[in-house]
What does this fold into?
Amino acid sequence: MKKSYLLGAAAAALCAGPASAEQLTVFGPWLGPDQAVVEKVLGAFAEQSGHDVSYVGSDSMEQQIVVDAEAGSAPNVAVFPQPGLAADMAGRGFLTPLKDGTADWIRENYAAGQSWVDLGTYAGPDGEESLYGFFYKVDVKSLVWYIPENFEDMGYDVPESMEELKALTDQMVDDGETPWCIGLGSGGATGWPATDWVEDMMLRTQPPEVYDEWVSNERPFDDPAVIGAIEEFGYFARNDDYVAGGAGAVATTDFRDSPKGLFDTPAQCFMHRQASFIPAFFPEGTEVGLDVDFFYFPAYAEKDFGKPVLGAGTLWAITNENEAAHDLIAFMQTAEAHELWMAEGGFLTPFKGVDTSKFADEPTKNMNDILLDATTFRFDGSDLMPGGVGAGSFWTGMVDYTGGKDAGEVAGAIQDSWDALK
It folds into this structure.
């Protein structure tokens, strides 16, 4: 057997040998190159454990897993892109709690560990809360993209607090420059980039428990804390001096086109807040870390909320229990399971035990450092809300707000739409 990083019970489980080998099916959202990588990871697990592992990917995974579970033909393990669906399936009795000790391992070994435990803990059919989900492969949204050469030419430093970011924004205006490119256009999904802004601002102006209350609607959408976060977004997006094309262009500029102003000569803007996927829409040949770079969207120094990070990710849950499924979750508590995908690129992890030199490139390592430095992690809030809100009235409400509507009026309308779904 090749070198294993496994310890204790996990090692014993995976070294049990062929006598205890089982069939294990894994169903997830990855196709194409990502499918090849996840199969490589699962292949390493199969080699160590002796289990016969197969993976099936689908771009309609969220719909199919419900159908399969209801039909009694669920895979052993399902990979959920959104915790909300996993929570719903746990409540219906379709998920199996992870083994005792898993939550303690996550708390001790993941940065902001309690956040990850909370995100994977749901009420079962009896109302009892258990850990059902193990997060593996994460995305970061709290990023600001910029051109290092432009900053250097103007003598700008990367801001380390929200106060410094706002001061830098003003300095750029004083220097005759435009600080920000912001675009909310996305066809039928127009408005969604603003929801990420508001979520980030909630985490920077309120404690994380207030964010949780907002996402669950325990705290109404038109609560002053939420209105305040919307207005924090408006501080940047509704100021003609701050945004390329003026505030009126924010809602009509396509989000895919919005970062292009960074690369113009002269630059049409100096900063763009967007998630880790946005380089796909940069000019062809752009090299992250050289031509363009990023920094952490900073928190307020004057507020004691640490370093919150907004993001997303996939959680792995047992949908048809056998021992092999538990062995796979144990394997994912090893550095090897994370480092295999790290080396292939497109992978971030909050696991503090990895060798970060094994990331495919330096920019990805630097992005992962933001995740490892996080004191709080919260999942994209709109993805956790009912679809009619998180993928509906929240989007359209943000378009209305950037168009000049009052934040309180917009928030009240979103709450009304939520109430109508209850």
In short: The chain has 17 helices and eleven strands. The radius of gyration is 22 Å. Confidence is low (pLDDT under 50) at residues 1-9. The longest helix spans residues 32-49.
